[in-house]
Amino acid sequence: MKRFDKSTVRKVLVVTLSNLGDVVLTLPVFQSLKQAMPSAALHVIAGPAAEAIFRGDPRVERLTIYDKKYGWRKKVKLLKSIRAERYDLIVDLRKSLFGFLGGGRFRNPYFFFSRSKKHRALRHWKSLKKILNEPSIPEESFLRTDAAVSAAVKDAVSSSSRRLVVACVGSKSDLKKWPAPSYARLLDRLVAESGCRVFLAGSAEDKKDTQAVLGLMEAEALDLTGLTNFNDLCYLIRSADLLVTNDSAPLHVADSLKVPTLAIFGPTDPVKYGPRFSGSAVARRVLFCAPCERAQCRFHHECMKELDADELYCQAVRVLEGEVRPRGPKILAIRLDRLGDVLLSLPALAALRRRFPEAWISVMVQPSTREVLQGHPLVDEVIVYDYAKNGAHRFPMGYLRFLKGIAKRRFDLAFVLHPSARSHLLPFLAGIPYRAGFKRDASFLLTQTVPDKRREGLRHESEYTADVVLGFGTKPSLGDNPAYPVFRDSEEKITTLLLKEGSDKGRERLFALHAGASCPSKRWPKENFALLGQEILARFPHRLVLIGGAGEEISADFLKTQWGDRVLNLAGKLSLRESAALLKRCEVLVSNDSGPVHLAAAVGTPTLTIFGRNQNGLSRHRWKALGPGHETIQKDVGCVVCLAHRCSIDFECLKAIGVDEVFERVKKMIKE
User: Fold this and answer.
1) Do the Cβ atoms of 279 and 260 come closer than 8 Å?
2) Do residues 645 and 518 lie in contact, with contact meaning Cβ atoms separated by under 8 Å?
3) Can you name the residues that pair with 63 across neighbouring β-strands?
4) What's the CA gap between 185 and 14, in Å, rounded?
5) Cα 292 off chain centre by
6) CA–CA separation, 452 vs 439, rounded Å?
């Protein structure tokens, strides 16, 4: 190639791409050309969808619209017109015959191959490297910011001082679309909890997707889909405090204008197509198959469906507040046991967050406890490991796919908060370089261990769990119980439920009881619960509420028949979030040693927990509710060794706890 002298260039042709979003990614090329050769005439060949970007732009002297569906005659005619212009420089981003046969004195290199993953905007700009030899990609946008905008859009934007969120829920490919129910929940929370106003925008082809989201939303939103031209869309995005969008053209427009964006990715690769602006964030679920960049999906779009709206809400709030976390360590915490155990791991997660405020923290749990951590401010991602009977990850192929998904996330640290061979094997096989946990059950797979003294029961479970992360964060105190977020929609559902059940405007004083537990050695006799409830109803104005999970309905039905109309039986009818919202409204919870105790403590409700087993490691000293204001009752009946559910003396430790003793403790708590 002849030596390029930009001072001799008088006329430049740029052959750009067809789709709107792809053309926006080529704009750094135009910016570099104008900066290097400001006096050169700039001609552009673009597809019909990209006409709006260049039409009327004074920097572009001539715009030629080219449709790839043109017949050969039109294509040959266009090529002849290109040759007749005698361009000094042709930059063909399509790598087509127009650039190869266009007769320009200089052109960009065609045969440039690279296996490295680079952003598409950078790859397009690299086509100029041998021509202009510029040191870095330009930061300024080539999009016009002075174009005429309709009065209706200006009025809509200026109609309120509340922060503006623009949502573009459509995409040319169905594979790139986040589900409408998830969009609706995210936007509802942004309106209700962050005080934002929401505009939905997009082309006329996106109308169906927009209507699906609007039909599921409870909050009001302004629908501008199909009612704006390209200039209006740019003005709307530039005025937004946050853009929420799939991988589509509005994402690239916002990134070019440096507008904070939450970009939702599934099958496509955010490294290639994601936002480059540091104030934006990417939401994605890394699976074994993602990003596949394929037109068809064999796995029912799991990479999009598994993205949780509450997790994305936390990300959206960080973008709105300008608190997008820089690249920090990627941390995986593993806790594959029950509800109470997961909740008692929150102080350890809080310690990690204090030590690594910029970290990405993922928590691996069973399906039954997924809901309790989704959307929690301490957690960026909840990973579900379903290894139960007939679970998705129990069989070899499912396990290998799950393992590949963990490996692709490239975690830096793994903390196994509950020891098991399964929990230790996963981070080892996934290639996580640093793995910490208890010295028990195949702990040779870990890189650092702490002694497992939990069976001694000398400290609280939350403190034992914190030992695993002690080398990396401040050790939480026994009273350090991070607040559990109660979601607005769950609170509203509980209010509606109470009103339906005849509660006085939802403000009736409530007293919760939970008569179930995971093991018979934890269950105080239901007959005692029945007598306790009768005493409470006779002496206090409260309404009793029965809670419990699936499988605990029988004992709850028995108690309801004993107590009459001032009882609300919700056992097996509430989700974990709804249970949290209900417990927050109760004055006291009386329960066996079980998960709801720790859920109530997390939302600030005083608890009275009935313990049976009095052996080290099983007693109240290790498993009581975390934080102040909680009471426990336990009796020592002289057992040398506790056989738990194999008890040979019919659980005398539980029967020794009298109804009168529990009631006196309840009475004291209500008065306090």
Assistant:
1) yes
2) no
3) 44
4) 43
5) 20
6) 6
Is the Cα torsion angle 47, 50, 56, 59 positive or negative in sign? negative
Q: Are 511 and 588 in contact (CB under 8 A)?
A: yes
Reduced to 3 states (helix: H, G, I; strand: E, B; else coil), residue 207 is helix
User: How, if at all, do strands 330-334 and 360-365 pair?
Assistant: parallel
From CA 245, how far away is CA 213, in angstroms rounded? 13
pLDDT tens, residue by residue, 115-155 = 567 899 998 888 887 788 777 888 888 998 888 899 999 99
- Measured CA to CA, the distance from residue 433 to residue 430 in angstroms comes to 9
The answer to whether residue 638 scores a pLDDT higher than 80 is no
pLDDT tens digits, 148-184: 899 999 999 999 889 999 999 999 888 899 999 999 9
What is the rounded distance in angstroms from the CA atom of residue 140 to the CA atom of residue 31?
A: 7
Tokens of 102: 């266009």
Q: Is the peptide bond before 606 cis (omega within 30 degrees of 0)?
A: no
Asked whether the whole model's pTM tops 0.85, one would answer yes
Q: Measure the CA–CA gap between 458 and 214, rounded to whole angstroms.
A: 54
Query: Residue 641's pLDDT is what?
Result: 72
Model confidence pLDDT, tens digit, residues 254-287: 999 999 999 999 999 999 999 998 899 999 998 8
How many Å apart are CA 124 and CA 93, to the nearest integer?
A: 7
Domains and CATH numbers, the chain: 6-132 (3.40.50.2000), 152-320 (3.40.50.2000), 330-467 (3.40.50.2000), 488-671 (3.40.50.2000)
CA dist 552 and 571 (Å) reads: 7
Read off the tokens for 672: 């306090």
Amino acid at 48: P
Label each residue of 120-173 as H, E or C: HHHHHHHCCHHHHCCCCCCCCCCCCCCCCCCHHHHHHHCCCCCCEEEEECCCCC
3-state secondary structure at position 309:
helix
The predicted-structure confidence for 389-419, as pLDDT tens digits, reads as follows 888 899 999 999 999 999 999 999 999 999 9
Q: Closest Cα partner for 128 from 231, 28, 208, 53? A: 28
- Averaged pLDDT score across all residues of the chain: 90
**Helix 526-539 with 659-671: angle, nearest 10 deg:** 40
Beta bridge partners of 567: 544
The residues that bridge with 281 in the sheet, in sequence order, are 262
Structure tokens at 462: 């939350």
